[in-house]
Task: structure prediction
Amino acid sequence: MSNYTYIAKSYAKINLGLRITERLPNGYHTLQTGFVFINWYDKLQVTRSHETLFRCSNKDLSTGEANLVMKAVKRMSREVGQSLNYHIQLSKMIPMGAGLGGGSSNAAQMLHMINEIEQLGYTNDDLAEIGLELGADVPIFVHGKTAMAQGIGEKLTFTNIQPDMHIVTVYPGFESSTAEAYTYCQPYQDEALNVDKVLTEYPVDDWSTFLVNDLEPPVIQIHPFVGLLKDQFYEMGAIYAAMSGSGSSVFGLYNHEFAAIEAFEYLKQEGYQANLTTPLFSPDNRIIRKS
Result:
């Protein structure tokens, strides 16, 4: 058995707009959203072993079978018809319950790493299909490319919507319940407010008027501070600010680097976990092999 250790970064996403179009009988919702990436990442280190051992730097995260990384290992074991075992170390930097997709990103990168370690030769489409069984957001992280999403988030249209702007993202220090956000949201149908149309045809200056996240109102009702953070971004010069996904993270888009840095440094000084992403950011999903 080789002693190679495989190392990769696992990046977060934010949602540019999120429209809930329908509540399905099974409890899921259909939606429209734009997925883009930010330079906030976890790190996975994986080594082949005789038994699976999963350690995480964040002791609040369960490392049992419910964890998406463990589910990815189990699912790939079924896929290849044999038990796959690894020592896995997850250095967790992306906040949990933040609407940044950290768990889905970890699962997607684990699928990639198993594909590499076992030399399975699966394509991104193959891995995305497997990943969809683990969660609706997993395919976007498998592909690692910006996209418009529809359905429950699994129908992806790859399009270059990564903002040519600085992105400041902040985690307010508390988690938001995805289930609660979806339970209390109101499905909305209005072609004039179609997320795809706004992102591809409207100037960024108009996004604050036309680009909305339908999960914001129920989350802000439960956590008013999310709304205060959004307002604060606008006060600090953001062109557009919104909650990401089902929260609780909030982000602001900035034309000017100095304003973005000022907002980022202020949030850090206030004691929040925050991130600053440069314009036209692209995630580095390479897997490094070390002996």
Notes: Residues 61 and 67 are 8 Å apart (CA to CA).
